């Protein structure tokens, strides 16, 4: 990681550092912050000659080398003060609540418009709605491009930024063109490195944020953080980690609840952690407890499925969506817990 003395290097100096790192088989990735740009060395940073040549340049303050498989997302990285903001919330300064339907029903758009308004009133600052769905059963409803228009219209009506999952490059392009602020990488794709790279490249230079679910098949925490690094190393480090339960499931729950990894993640990465209790436990009755446990473990926020009339929903909504009333109560209690675990932000 190259830290210059000034906030941004002029092109000639970027050219000079680029030539030095490329001659050692690495490349430069600028990470543009609100005030300062830092220059990540992508590749093996251990080449002493390269480091000496960079350190010898009069406009370089210092070179930070951290031995980590995720240089950018590491807690010791120079990006550790990077702030991510959405829906009027700066992560870490106030709790973030993302809520809405698992799946938008293109045949019944009014449910989604009503849900959007209801989750806003319950205290959510970001609206979620599944346009395209990763379904285990190939004959189950797979989503519909038309639902993207419904999502955009709901965002217009409520003023809330929106979150939706994309599974391929075409959906990624459609979502970005439609102005989706929060792109969800689903649990099934959190280990799809080609998609992670495509998303990283597509969001570089934009304010877009990525909500990276934890794969149900991820073992180590480093595997999870490294998946975030795949996205960030294209230049946009706006990645939020989202534990959502893993396999094999705890008998009775949909997955194995994993909100207890929040403090462990926070020892290794500066990335905000927003927990999804809905897919973790998979039944509306258990969701508030899991949500509040996540807050007690120090989560920066929650992503919760909610629907005005869960029994009339599709996808996961009939079994795991909260009603607006239960969502409102869960958010109210989560807000009470949050300051206990974020004393510095009080
Ligand atoms: C979802 O958010 O509706 C979803 C499919 O999530 P996951 O990828 O965590 O299963
Ligand atoms: Mn779902």
Break the fold down into its secondary structure elements and pairings:
Elements: E1 2-4, H1 11-22, E2 27-32, E3 37-42, H2 48-55, E4 60-63, E5 85-86, E6 89-90, E7 96-101, H3 109-122, E8 126-129, H4 146-158, E9 162-165, H5 169-178, E10 182-185, H6 193-203, E11 209-213, H7 221-232, E12 239-242, H8 262-268, E13 274-275, H9 277-281, H10 287-296, E14 301-305, H11 317-320, H12 324-341
Parallel strand pairs: 7-8, 7-14, 8-9, 9-10, 10-11, 11-12, 13-14
Antiparallel strand pairs: 1-4, 2-3, 5-6
Structure description:
The chain has 346 residues and is of the alpha/beta class. Helix content is 36%, strand content 16%. It has an 8-stranded parallel sheet with strand order 12-11-10-9-8-7-14-13. Helix 7 links the parallel strand 11 (209-213) and strand 12. The two termini are 32 Å apart. The model has no long low-confidence stretch (mean pLDDT 96). It binds phosphoenolpyruvate and manganese (II) ion. The site of phosphoenolpyruvate has 11 residues, from loops.
């Amino acid at each position: 990681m190259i830290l210059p003395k000034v906030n941004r290097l002029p092109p000639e100096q970027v050219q000079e550092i680029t030539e030095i790192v490329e001659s050692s088989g690495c490349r430069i990735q600028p990470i543009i912050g609100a005030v300062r740009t830092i220059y990540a060395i992508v590749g093996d940073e251990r080449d002493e000659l390269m480091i000496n040549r960079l350190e010898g340049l009069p406009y370089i303050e210092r070179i930070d080398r951290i031995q980590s498989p995720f240089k950018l997302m590491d807690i010791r990285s120079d990006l550790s003060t990077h702030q991510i903001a959405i829906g009027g919330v700066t992560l870490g300064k106030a709790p973030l609540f993302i809520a809405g339907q698992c799946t938008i029903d293109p045949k019944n758009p009014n449910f989604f418009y009503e849900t959007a308004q209801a989750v806003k009133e319950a205290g959510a600052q970001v609206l979620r709605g599944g346009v395209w769905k990763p379904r285990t059963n190939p004959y189950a409803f797979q989503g519909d491009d038309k639902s993207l228009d419904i999502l955009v219209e709901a965002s217009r009506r409520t003023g809330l930024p929106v979150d939706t999952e994309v599974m391929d490059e075409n959906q990624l392009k459609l979502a970005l063109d439609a102005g989706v602020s929060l792109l969800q990488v689903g649990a099934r794709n959190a280990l799809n490195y080609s998609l992670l790279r495509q998303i990283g490249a597509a969001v570089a230079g934009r304010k877009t944020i990525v909500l990276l679910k934890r794969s149900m098949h991820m073992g180590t925490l480093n595997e999870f953080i490294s998946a975030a690094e795949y996205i960030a190393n294209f230049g946009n480090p706006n990645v939020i980690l989202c534990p959502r339960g893993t396999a094999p499931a705890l008998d009775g729950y949909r997955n194995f609840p994993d909100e207890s990894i929040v403090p462990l993640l926070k020892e290794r990465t500066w990335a905000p952690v927003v927990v999804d209790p809905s897919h973790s436990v998979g039944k509306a009755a258990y969701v508030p407890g899991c949500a509040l446990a996540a807050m007690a473990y120090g989560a920066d926020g929650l992503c919760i499925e909610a629907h005005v009339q869960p029994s009339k929903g599709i996808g996961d909504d009939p079994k795991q969506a909260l009603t607006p009333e239960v969502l409102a109560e869960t958010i109210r209690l989560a807000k009470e817990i949050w300051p206990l675990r974020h004393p510095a932000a009080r």
